[in-house]
Amino acid sequence: MPDPDHSERLAQLEDRIEKLKAKDAPKPHMEEHYSQAHLAWRMVIELVVGLLIGFGIGYGLDSLFGTLPLFLVIFTLLGLAAGIKTMMRSAKELTQETDDTPEPGEK
Fold it and tell me: How many domains in the chain?
């Protein structure tokens, strides 16, 4: 007949093994796919929003001063530059996150 203390220790060991297996289990591929798509859309939206804000400011200033193409072109280009800068910052954050996460099997 097995010792009750031995059975309890065995149950605790099995629980610890299951927790470690669950922690190291690979994530489903679908989750990562949607995560990458989300980040890609975020970058595209940041670029487009920068363009639209620059276009709006330029058009507003041109309407105010009566110089239609001048400020529109300048602020649209500035909006493009700001959108690209924001997009590159997001890409840099993404690469830092992926560099910080260990590969499966690494400790």
Answer: 1
